Amino acid sequence: MFYCKGCFTPVIRMSEGLTATQQVKKRKQYKKWVNWAVGLGTVSLFIMTAVWMVIEEPVVLFVGLGLYWLGCLGMAVGYWYSPVSVRDELEQQMEREASQTTIIFVIAATTIALPAEVVLTTTGIYTAPAAVRGAIWGYMLLILIFLSARWIGKRQYK
Question: What is the pLDDT at residue 34?
Fold first, then answer.
């Protein structure tokens, strides 16, 4: 049992009535659902893109994109309706560590690349290709989004 946020009303989770064995089975079942949904959606998009390169009909791309979104919707439904957490504690810890490594890389790359790009472009010594500039500024936007989300999260738990 846990309490809903902002109130003292107990909320009963469906997983409380399940044995440990049933929880593991449900976790595997829903994880399989989530992986198949997103996998089929992604593969469909790649296949439809390859088909589009041959026949060059825009509708093929729209079908691929629709199947991809359907796969994403299936993934969300799998997470939403699962009576247990789809990821166990070990997977959550691995994702946390991977996220920390990723954000450290993004911050380091942006700290070095952004000032260099601005100075080199302003002085006329070197103008980075648009794709590189877009990636650098995209990293900066990612950092700002991360910091905003962290700030909001901190305020919620104070």
Answer: 93
Tell me the pLDDT tens digit for each residue of 44-64: 999 999 999 999 999 999 999
d(Cα 98, Cα 121) in Å, to the nearest integer?
Answer: 33
C-alpha to C-alpha distance for 141 and 147, rounded to whole angstroms: 10
92: phi then psi, degrees, rounded to nearest 5: -65, -40
Q: Enumerate residues 6+ apart whose C-beta is below 8 A from 82.
A: 26, 27, 30
Would you state the structure tokens that stand for residue 138, as one six-digit string? 């995209």
Phi and psi angles of residue 127, each rounded to the nearest 5 degrees, phi first: -115, 115
Is residue 71 within 8 Å of residue 38, measured between CB atoms? Answer: yes
- Name the burial class of residue 70, with classes exposed (0-12), middle (13-18) and buried (19+) by CB atoms within 10 angstroms of its CB: middle
CA angle 33, 87, 81 (to 5 degrees): 50
Mean pLDDT of the chain: 88
